[in-house]
Design goal:
CATH architecture of the domain at 143-223: Roll
Bound molecules: protoporphyrin IX containing FE
Strand content: 5-15%
Order of helices and strands: HHHEHEEEHHHE
Distance between the termini: 144 Å
GO molecular function: cytochrome-b5 reductase activity, acting on NAD(P)H; heme binding; metal ion binding
Number of helices: 7
InterPro entries: Cyt_B5-like_heme/steroid-bd, Cyt_B5-like_heme/steroid_sf, Cyt_B5_heme-BS, Cytochrome_b5/Flavoprotein_Rdt
Family: Belongs to the cytochrome b5 family.
Oligomer: single chain
Helix content: 10-25%
GO cellular component, one term: cytoplasm
Number of strands: 5
Largest sheet: 5 strands, mixed
Radius of gyration: 48 Å
CATH superfamily of the domain at 143-223: Cytochrome b5-like heme/steroid binding domain
Protein name: Cytochrome b5 heme-binding domain-containing protein
Shape: elongated
Length: about 230
Amino acid sequence: MTSYLRSWLYSGTSAVEPAPTPVPTIQEISPPVSDSEDGDATETEQDDDLPPAFPSLNSAQRVQSSRLPRILTDSQLMPPPPIPSLSSLRQPGVPNTRGNSLVVPPSTTKPPPKPKKGKKVALAPGHSPLDWAALKSSGADLRGVDTLLRIPPSVLKQHNKRDDAWSAFNGKVYNMTAYLPFHPGGEKELMRVAGRDGTQLFASTHGWVNVDFMLDSCLVGFLVPEPS
Ligand code: HEM
């Protein structure tokens, strides 16, 4: 059987043998395979992680670039960047005059403004802003008057004691007496406006505070011009 098949195979191929075609030959493999120790390792069995040579060894790109003439000499090449100054040499707030560091621009080296003179004071226990909110909405009489009044500056001036402190803010007159121990800036600061118009001082100290809301249950009337 085998001999029959062999004779049939050879006789068939010899009859229809095609004309020989040129076979391309591989000139070089990139990268060159290194000799392995056991001698029978194939390309896929290699465990080196070297990337293939780029451009490939026989590429036109590689051949061309090696023939290119050097255009610039070493002295004509761009100089390397300056070495950045060490951070230990930098002074906070002092602009860098060497001009080669990453220090913040001079516009931001101005030291921050000092905090204002007025400070918050430690309030006595039971005098937190929440305690004040509870007191003013408790229904307790914090005004000391039965009806809203028209108050000229001369009348306002008479209410300048700790136990009777009135002040005007934006045309409204408030009895601040109950609020004095609750004021986060202290009683002393608040007493500076007792018996007079405190609008200016209030606005320059903390314009963001809503006095109308804080003292709504302490309103006693409205500031009016002195009667002639
Ligand atoms: C009766 C009107 C006033 C009310 C309702 C009031 C209310 C307040 C409130 C709620 C704060 C805390 C503000 C915050 O934490 O941001 C405060 C702080 C302060 N208040 Fe008044 N205030 C009044 C009038 C005044 C006046 C006339 C002065 C006078 C200078 C003054 C001086 C201060 C000061 C120095 C602080 C501390 C500011 C800080 O936190 O640095 N307050 N006041």
